[in-house]
Amino acid sequence: DVVMTQTPLSLPVSLGDQASISCRSSQSLVHSNGNTYLHWYLQKPGQSPKLLIYKVSNRFSGVPDRFSGSGSGTDFTLKISRVEAEDLGVYFCSQSTHVPTWTFGGGTKLEIK
Amino acid sequence: EIQLQQSGPELVKPGASVKVSCKASGYSFTDYNMYWVKQSHGKSLEWIGYIDPYNGGTSYNQKFKGKATLTVDKSSSTAFMHLNSLTSEDSAVYYCARSEDGYSYAMDYWGQGTSVTVSS
To answer: In order along chain B (120 residues), what is the average pLDDT of each group of 10 residues?
Structure first.
């Protein structure tokens, strides 16, 4: 299975700061069709995960433009340009290139410094 | 509005089985695969498997073969996950999520989760 490794485990930030989360895969996530199926989710406390970014850099419907995704191959980054209180929670990366096994990263907890 | 409404929390005894439901609304049920995901103790997420509601075809994570069985009832737009021979290791929150397979292959809408607690 493809192993997804996220860093850091915990990210203390001040409101208004920029935040950056890294996700690394054990194999390239470039599919034979040329697409890269790397996605980002946010799970707020007591809630189910919500899709933020799909296919590396595409914001899902309703996601603010302060969220951006980038990367290629095995290294990917989620950036939040100006952290707001509603952004706090656990962020997960996930791959669906190497199906039929979808895998998730261990999560990064974004919290107030 | 797209919604996935899951059944309520379950407390079950070791060795028993449980069936979790996920009722979809706001979209064409048979147009999207339904995935199931396990989250143990608030930690990370594990993909259990998915079902194609159109034809009932399934795919399972090797780890959950023999543990989980996925089915659907098209008439009520409801997906089900049956878990058998439960142990404490099966205590977790289980989510259903639909996936935009054929385009993004991302789980774009999730249910609210069903807590399953295995205890005597």
So the answer is: 98 98 97 97 90 96 96 98 97 96 91 97
Beta carbons of A27 and B87 less than 8 angstroms apart: no
Residues in A closer than 8 angstroms to B47, CB to CB, are 101-104
d(CA B10, CA A104): 25
Q: How far is the alpha carbon of A82 from chain B, nearest alpha carbon, in Å?
A: 24
pLDDT, tens digit, 9 for 90 and up, residues A72-107: 999 999 999 999 999 999 999 999 999 888 999 999
**A102 vs B47: CB contact, 8 Å cut-off?**
yes
Element (H, E) at B10: strand B10-12
Question: Dihedral (C-alpha) B50, A46, B21, B105: value to the nearest 10 degrees?
Answer: -20
Listed residue (B33, B81, B38) closest to B54, CA to CA: B33
Residues A27 and B59: their CA atoms lie apart, in Å, by 22
pLDDT score for B27: 97
